[in-house]
Write a structure and sequence with these properties.
This protein has 498 residues and is an alpha/beta fold. It contains 19 helices and 16 strands. α6 packs parallel to α9 and α17 crosses α18. The model has no long low-confidence stretch (mean pLDDT 92). The structure holds uridine-5'-diphosphate (UDP). The site of uridine-5'-diphosphate (UDP) has 20 residues, from α1, α14 and α15.
Length: 498
Amino acid sequence: PEPPLTKHIIMLPFMAQGHLIPFLELAHHILNHNPTFTITIVNTPLNIHYLRSATANHRSPPTQLHLKPLPFNSSDHHLPPNSENTDGLPLTQIIKLFHASAALELPFRKFIHDVVVSEKRNNVCIVSDIFMGWANDVAKSFNIFNYSFSTGGAYGTAAYCSIWLNLPHRRLTGGTHDEFWVPGFPESSRFTITQLHQFLRAADGKDEWSRFFQVQISLSLKSNGWLCNTVEEIEPLGLEVLRNYIKLPVWCIGPLIPFKMLKKNLGSDTGVIGPRSGKQPGIRPEQCIEWLDSHATGSVIYISFGSQNTIGESQMMELAKGLEESKRPFIWVIRPPIGFDLQGDFRPEWLPNGFKDRVGKQGLVVHNWAPQLEILCHRATGAFLSHCGWNSVMESLSQGVPIIGWPMAAEQGYNAKMLVEEMGVCEVLTRGVHSRITKEEVSRVINVVLDKSEGGKGEDMRKKASKLGDLIRASVEDNKGSSYRAMDEFLASAISGF
Ligand code: UDP
């Protein structure tokens, strides 16, 4: 008799590091949970190359995980050659990449057709990024299930979806000029226009950003359920709003972080896990860990703005001066400031004269890409100055590290809002790339958050972050944890559609 066909999940991430990383981790988590599945991640050739390098160093890459490149030529979409990922693209070009992603529909459809023909319809389902909503149409035409995966958290995703689908923003009567209401949220959780990214502030439903997000999010609402990289216990308000708003099953299967980093006790050194994104770090992870080993527990501030953001030139200067003034040890991931080629060389004049020499042992300046998870998992790291991208947030909270917020784009402003208002683990330093910051403010905020005095604000944030870390790590416990059980339920749903 023929061996039974394995159940095949085909994954379609959006073309950004902050999406590829959690999708790849989701594949690992599923196979860890149930090794009888087969998973294929499809994407453009460059992103498949990234994923291949990220899996190559894995000690035992699962044989059930396949990577499939789909043809894509960025030059066809008025983008520079080989622009297949948001990293390295300025904001004006990123919107072109968003629209260009729809060109994957045809080759994706052909791939699904081939798989369905060779493996029988009832053995295949799709997990697609909420930015690739058209995958739902593909699934419907083959009569297979499609699940949407939002790589954001529940609160941020709910706010993001609701804001895009309810343009223009409705100002609150009786509120300040700046305040508006986000349908689905209680009236008491007011949002402000300044929390929005510049393209959302100007969005009216007709601009190129709205045209992309409104269509893709609406299509994603037609799927068989949503997966969310969060934990049931940490975002009660966000999940309530999200579930009411999208009216689909939502499974919280986070944190999408290697189990090795979750099973360790808080504060212990976890060592190196290897590349997660296929991008070359600007420093050897071992070197980073060695540097961290020489510092006291909870003393170091880690600064990074994710995979695609950078800050303004004058902001960079003030941040450098503020770090120096704070006298706290730091690891800073730097890239050329906004308006310059992100892939280009870093010019010394972007930092204060003699900065690197002066900070010497105090700071580790890393170019472009750092082994972030290893840094956050180290006992010496005491705070994270972050753009509040959701992966960064989950990585930080899972280790009990409080956050200094500097939200930039996407749903980062709402993530920061929730971290402050709902969780109490964040102090916002500033927003965006055009704001004016001063070295005094930088140094003040860093000192508040790293301060260890009994009864102080830093202590309070650390305690709250530590409690969230406990909840997050408990969620993956076999059989008992909420994320473990949610994964069970999601896979049961997927199997029922086969
Ligand atoms: N990342 C990293 N090293 C860096 C910058 C980012 O490893 O120097 C990883 C980070 O750990 C996270 C992802 O890239 O997993 C960034 O995702 P996030 O959602 O935080 O931000 P985005 O890049 O999507 O804005």
